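Structure tokens please, single chain.
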Amino acid sequence: MSKAAISYGPLIVLLTALAALGMLSTNIYLPALPVIGAALHADADTVRLTLTVYLAVFAVCQLVAGPLSDRYGRRPVLVFGLALFFGATLICAMAQTVEMLIIGRALQAVGACAASTVGRAMARDLFDGAALSRALGLIMTGVAVAPGFGPLLGGLLQEGFGWRAPFYAVAGFGIVILAIVLWRLGETRPETTHRPGIAGAFTAYDSLLSQAQFLRPAFATTCALGALFAFFAGAPGLFIAAYGQSPTEFGLTSSFTVFAVFAGGYSAPGLMRRFGASMATRFGFLVLSIGGALLLGHLAAAPGLWPAIGATLVFLYGIGIVNPLTVAAALQPFPQRAGAAAALIGALQMAGATLGAALVNLLPLPGLQPMPAAMLLLALCGLLSTLPRTQPATQPA
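Here you go.
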């Protein structure tokens, strides 16, 4: 087996880039949506399909990409996915109709999900124990940070060069990653990896979902991503509509607050070493819950910009702790099924993201309160899932 012919630091950067590619592609073009609608003569609902289709395809295709990487190897699936991503992003950039843009986005999602899923599986191939938690702490921080910087970068590119510029920038990012993979990254799949066909993969998913050592941390990370996307869904209404920030100012605020995710990801391995993975994860969810509660209480009383930013920083610090620890806990017991486990985690996370965004529209609360209420609800669900299970009392003979 040929392992990655690349040192630790650049390897982590590469795996982070692979994992963050999907998130960056999700929202870098969002500031340009009104301009895209005008340029392609499409209404707002049709243009929003470019996001909906992307998320749906991304979620489903992960369930195929993971088993394919188990069966045929990480590197072939990764190279194919990155090449497809590059070509699809060029289709998006050159689209002359909204239908062509939607098709390009669907193909882009296939390539991005292959990169993201295989990147997580490679991390499990190459690291174990505390090293896996440290590596995933850095990688998952990048995944959480990408949505913070994406709108700012996309807005600047759109204002300077037009709505196609964000797609060309992402295509350039993708081809650089592909070149590095071809040049330096070897195959990482262990020879002992279980190699089912696609039909057998769904049996593997059923097996994983039946095991508490996978299901509990997978449910926890699903709740965490749901809470994060509830924040993403409601943040523009809070900071732009309520506080009067311009899109650029909102992008700057998002870029500033994601440094809390960095801090949480940096502290997660130390917390795990000192208190154990379970206690550190519960602490992270407690921080998440406090951040959501602070924001909910503040908006119910007297909305103000800086207290809202403070509560957001608390919340995002908790995200930085929880994400790597929960993903590592779900992947750790299954080295022979790393691809399938990584794919299933990714699909569950995307389902959680969809649920979190939907709850912001569904909760029957006034004003700006649905966003922090959804954040708090999902954080508490995640916290409950990490509590120790009570053992049934032993009956006397």
